[in-house]
Amino acid sequence: MPPPNTPEEGVPAAVSSPPARARRSARNASISSVAATIGSETQGICVGSVGDLSSRTRPCVLPINYQELRYESEVDKSLECPICRTPFSVPITTKPCGHTFCSVCLLRAHQMRPVCPIDRRPLDIDRDFCKARVIHDQLDRLRVKCPSQGCDYVCPRELLAVHYERYCEGTPVPCPDNSCDLWIARHDATPDKGCLHKYTPCQYCSKQVMKAALEEHYDRECSGNTVKCAECDVDVVQHRMESHVVNDCPSTVVSCKWSSYGCGKKAPRRDIWAHEKKPCVYQAIGRLVKDREEDRLIISELRARLSTVEGRLRMSEKEKTERKERKRRQASSNVDNTENTIPAFVPDLNLSNSPRAAASYNNGTWDSPEDYMLAQFERMETQMEDLRKNIHELDGLHSMRLLNDTMRLNEQIAELGSKVGVIGMHTTWLMNVQRQSRGQQRAVGGVGSPLGAFASSSGGSGATSGATAGGVSDTLRNAPDNEGGRYYSSNMPPRRNSDGRGENPPRL
Amino acid sequence: MAPGAQFAAKRLGKELTKISKGLPAGIVLVQGDNFEEWLLDIQVLDSNPLYMGQTYRLKFKFGSSYPIEPPEVVFVKLPDRPIPIHPHIYSNGIICLDLLGQQGWSPVQNVESVCMSLQSMLTGNTKNERPPGDEEFVRGNRLRPKDIDFYYHDNNV
């Protein structure tokens, strides 16, 4: 299923190009077809208004209604459709006056009166609309909330469809029961749960409630399911009792908030509240410990950062000294002994069991294997970068060369083609002349005149117009091929095969 | 719910939030708790002697295809809310205004813009009279305002 944002490409095409016949015969039909096209292609924005698309082919998720989306922040007024007053869905712009509307809104208004709703300029549904690309891009960037119930996901509008269709657990999908045509949230749509749209009596108030809405019913409207908590005398929703006892009930015996810091007090919650307010003597310690823990976290983080910085510093210093030493050595003697002078900078892929690597950090060049590895890694990264650059350069060079070569070849091929065409024409003409002369000979010999007349007439037409000559000669020679290269196929061998690649085409 | 009703409700909801942020001077929303019928009060703010100091009650009725189709707008007569005197307003509150007809309506119009149009229609009027044939019309008319075939001829007021 295509995401709703992409198929908008198809909208203006649908608007602008229904066949001309349909345009003339039934205007209303063409408008409704456009509306239907837009409706289906955009996953049925405002499905109900476009027509009952959902009943015909049921999509695998409930289509997003772009006009009902909620946005993270207030949307600029200039991005709102003047008809539905929501941010555009599938914006289209009128060509003569440049006003933008949602395609669905404009089509609905257009069905009523074929004019622009703002300045009443007459509009032709087939010609006068184009897509509003810039606005579309702006809309794509708006941050929008996922329309699924219970989902807090916020993302740019163009990515919403992917989240909604593929990942969101709250997306309404068709009920797993085939006989039921309602929608159910994806996390509830499991075959073992069955159809949750059957009405069951609420176990507390015996009202008929849909299974899927049972939780909501308990929380909101069910009157018969509240019971008095045996401990604290408060009305509690029955199936929330457990959590009430654990989290809220003032009579439950709990231990002090600071118990982990040494306070051993255990009492019913209401006493604990008072105890904590008093305050508990361990509160001070608890706070202190908490603060210290936070500090410790910060310290460890800082320490880690420091060690990396130090490592880097050391590395650069080492590099500097190495360079100096190398220069000095090169200056003093031209003995090439790189193996010993810069062991750390030789990329070594087999580090783990390489004696040289082990030696190089053990003999004091590097403090720890990690530093050594880091240096190697950075070195390799720069090398990779260099290689990448080289490859890019080569790539460019290559494609340039290829282009140059092919251009030359193409030119030659075109030239050859045209020459072959000319040869073909010449051949036809020659053959016609031959045939004509043969006919004349026969006529002179007193055999049959009608054939000669035919040949002469066809020969005349072939000679006069070059374009038709090929066709006529083809039918005469029984070689049904229009390609110029095949003109000398059966009865005339090619005069010359050009096999040298760089050589000029044969001159005629 | 009719297919378009959701569309209409959505749009009216939007208008309601906008109205709650403020309306132009002289326009007050009296009742707007459903998406079928709203009541608004309008006043003419300048010193036109015909309408000075008066408040008029407007009733908007929205169909399921609002805003594609126009709402039905009439003045309502109450003890303290008279029907304004105007050559295009019948004494039963029916308004003859092309903006509210099928032909003059545009879906970009809204409640606020209709109220402002009516305000300016009253402001610009100087004739202290009812439309011609007002009495017969009021006596005989059983049609809804949107079904009456008005002839919009007067472009002055």
TrEMBL record, chain A:
<feature type="compositionally biased region" description="Low complexity">
    <location>
        <begin position="11"/>
        <end position="20"/>
    </location>
</feature>
<keyword id="KW-0479">Metal-binding</keyword>
<feature type="region of interest" description="Disordered">
    <location>
        <begin position="313"/>
        <end position="349"/>
    </location>
</feature>
<feature type="domain" description="TRAF-type">
    <location>
        <begin position="162"/>
        <end position="215"/>
    </location>
</feature>
<keyword id="KW-0862">Zinc</keyword>
<feature type="zinc finger region" description="TRAF-type">
    <location>
        <begin position="162"/>
        <end position="215"/>
    </location>
</feature>
<feature type="domain" description="TRAF-type">
    <location>
        <begin position="217"/>
        <end position="272"/>
    </location>
</feature>
<feature type="zinc finger region" description="TRAF-type">
    <location>
        <begin position="217"/>
        <end position="272"/>
    </location>
</feature>
<dbReference type="GO" id="GO:0008270">
    <property type="term" value="F:zinc ion binding"/>
</dbReference>
<feature type="compositionally biased region" description="Polar residues">
    <location>
        <begin position="331"/>
        <end position="341"/>
    </location>
</feature>
<feature type="region of interest" description="Disordered">
    <location>
        <begin position="456"/>
        <end position="508"/>
    </location>
</feature>
<feature type="compositionally biased region" description="Basic and acidic residues">
    <location>
        <begin position="496"/>
        <end position="508"/>
    </location>
</feature>
<feature type="region of interest" description="Disordered">
    <location>
        <begin position="1"/>
        <end position="28"/>
    </location>
</feature>
<feature type="compositionally biased region" description="Low complexity">
    <location>
        <begin position="456"/>
        <end position="471"/>
    </location>
</feature>
<feature type="compositionally biased region" description="Basic and acidic residues">
    <location>
        <begin position="313"/>
        <end position="324"/>
    </location>
</feature>
<dbReference type="Pfam" id="PF13923">
    <property type="entry name" value="zf-C3HC4_2"/>
</dbReference>
<dbReference type="InterPro" id="IPR001841">
    <property type="entry name" value="Znf_RING"/>
</dbReference>
<keyword id="KW-0863">Zinc-finger</keyword>
<dbReference type="InterPro" id="IPR001293">
    <property type="entry name" value="Znf_TRAF"/>
</dbReference>
<dbReference type="InterPro" id="IPR013083">
    <property type="entry name" value="Znf_RING/FYVE/PHD"/>
</dbReference>
<protein>
    <submittedName>
        <fullName>Uncharacterized protein</fullName>
    </submittedName>
</protein>
<feature type="domain" description="RING-type">
    <location>
        <begin position="81"/>
        <end position="120"/>
    </location>
</feature>
Automatic annotation (TrEMBL), chain B:
<protein>
    <submittedName>
        <fullName>Ubiquitin-conjugating enzyme</fullName>
    </submittedName>
</protein>
<dbReference type="Pfam" id="PF00179">
    <property type="entry name" value="UQ_con"/>
</dbReference>
<dbReference type="InterPro" id="IPR016135">
    <property type="entry name" value="UBQ-conjugating_enzyme/RWD"/>
</dbReference>
<dbReference type="InterPro" id="IPR000608">
    <property type="entry name" value="UBC"/>
</dbReference>
<feature type="domain" description="UBC core">
    <location>
        <begin position="7"/>
        <end position="157"/>
    </location>
</feature>
<keyword id="KW-0833">Ubl conjugation pathway</keyword>
<dbReference type="InterPro" id="IPR050113">
    <property type="entry name" value="Ub_conjugating_enzyme"/>
</dbReference>
